[in-house]
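Thought: the user wants the 3D structure for the chain below. I'll pass the sequence to the structure tool as-is, report back what it returns, then summarize two notable features.
Action: structure_tool
Action Input:
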Amino acid sequence: MHTQTVFELNQEAERLLQLALQHLQALQNVPFAALHQDSSGASVLPLHFSQQGIEDQQETLQNELRKITRQEMVLAIVGTMKAGKSTTINAIVGKEVLPNRNRPMTALPTLIRHTPGQKQPVLHFPHVAPIEALMGELQQQLQHFSRDLLAQHVELDRDMAALLERIEQGTHFEKHYLGSQPIFHCLKSLNDLVRLSKVLGVAFPFSAYAAIDHVPFIEVEFIHLAGLAQGHGQLTLLDTPGPNEAGQPHLQQMLSEQLARASAVLAVMDYTQLKSVSDEEVRRAISAVGNGVPLYALVNKFDQKDRNSDDEDQVRALISGTLMKGDIQPEHIFPVSSMWGYLANRARDELAQRGRLPDPAEQRWVQDFAEAALGRRWRNADLADSAALRQAADLLWEDSLFEQPVTTILHAAHASASLYALRSASHKLLNYAQRTRDYLAFRCQGLNVASEALAHNIAGLEHDRQMLAHSQQGIEEAVQQEVVRTLETVAACVNNQQLHLSRDVEFYFSEGMLPQTGRPDPLEMPQARRRDFIPYSSRLTMENEDDARLMMQAIRSACELILHRGQERLSRELAGLLPALEGNLSRILHDALAPVQQRVSDGLQDAGFRTRIVLPAFQAAALHLDVQQLFHNAVAPQDIPVATPRRAGGMRGTMARWLNSSDWGWEDAVATRTHYFIDLDNLKQSLLAHINQFGDRLNYAVTTQINGSVGAGLTTFFADFTRVLGDIDATLRQSLAARQQSEAQLQTLERQLQRCTASIAWLQEDARLLRDDIQTLFAEPLP
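Observation:
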């Protein structure tokens, strides 16, 4: 990396950002250039060139200017409450800088800056005045609430009780907190203030912390960066609020705003909840950031993977292809265990600093570490061997799989923070330039269109908006019919596989061997055409315990293979059905609304406008089902019972524990010391009954997931299309207002808009060249 080149690019980016800010200011000073959001009387989302939209764009560009001035790369961490976001940040930093509680913990965005030499974390909260004002309001409101009444609406735990005492006594928040415990106390209090404010009906001052310079920030040395050569620029993590944390739905907007101002985004996903509704909201938020911001994903809780779950490659393929629609590259997705990574880091730090671990009775994390690293049977004596503990901590860190993302993301970001900041700035500049150029072109065209034509287009557009609202119900009914047809096909598919499974089970227990599949199957080769027991046996009797154990293993293996075959067949069939549903729904929406789109485009073109109106894509990311996981959950090998008496010990007790059964099918058996029995009839009937139950569970899961996904997709689709029509309507009304000025005023306005159009064209070209130069440096190997 060439330092001089980076410096020159930094200078160029600063120049272009200043020009863009001046351009926005000039646009504000042009009469009729800024849109009036309420001009149409409709409730429309904030427009880019309304007064609020211009201010938002100014804040975004100012933020980019601050980042390149400081050469700061901001890596935004986003995830749902239960995904383990705080634990992940602690694992990345290598120290416990954020508290963990089983409730929302990120009411306000928080910055964590890598500061070499800062061994103890320090929290700075310079913009504390809005919180102090909030505390005063809450103090007044609490005079009208008894503790009993308050307890009906909020949990009065120890933390909340301490906060209430602080409010009543008028204790202020400090501007600086040194050490983990004071930081925890501050951040927990801030989050509890959000909960308390909602209960007492006092608005929490979220807007006061919209600017990134106003949020609290922590300075600490990241353990994984300690000792590395000083990188080019400053690396900072941004802990963002998850969607709907603390029961505050507007945090979704705050999340989107913070992500738009980040240099890169790291999504923390829950391996056990990859297709949940909350995770889908996070995926939608990070997809909206666009191609200008690098996206990464840590799939947390991978330590909960079992032998039936998706492996690393399957997880990467699922997230990259199906859930994120290609927005994240597979090599940017890392399955990890944040808890193991955090515990390993903390143990290694304690051992390095003090040579031993704290008393596990005083600090619970030591117990968690010992159980994860040493096993469930660890004893206090095991914590005395420091050398063994260091080795166990190193192995736990290796098992956490955190080393790869630390190297790929953290080290690269540290080494090239200034380049990440530059790339972010160049993409924000390009987005601004393209959006502004399209808007100004539309406005310039509007000045050359007669007032009558503008009024006619506005009336036609209003008619189309009303027609859209009226036709929405019919479209939703057509969509629901398609969903019903698909669900019927799915149910028939599931029923067919149930029958197939039942026949295979009947065949196996009748013939004593697996049925043939009709095609080569490597999974069945070890026992292909091997007979496990005599055909038509109803009960097996063995005199040797080892023989009984081997027989049960053979029967269980055969049953697992039968279920696996069914799972594979079902997966293949559903893999074709669900993408077809998404395609059909997109076609229904396109066919129904294309006439509206065409009328709007034709009407504007007849009036002299060149427009690019496109229907939004129908997004139904969660239509994909992890069919293998559903199948395994419904018909899992451990649910297959085997005949055994009620005994805690011996071979029969062991077999019962294997199969999660206590006395199935053996209540009347006469056992001797030398005979062991397996009731095949009861085993077969139990397995068949379980297969029959599986269909209902699978159909319910499919129906719930598809209905939820389609409902969310339709809502987003209509909201996007309505917003596009609203934007056009507001722009046409502004053009009509401009046309009603005098001819001299009209000519002056046209010249001003043309000057703005020319300058934004030059800005766009320079921003494109800047982006290309920066991308060239990214392609070069690091020194």
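Final Answer: Structure generated. The chain has three domains: 71-325+406-415, 338-400, 451-693+707-739. The chain has a mean pLDDT of 79.
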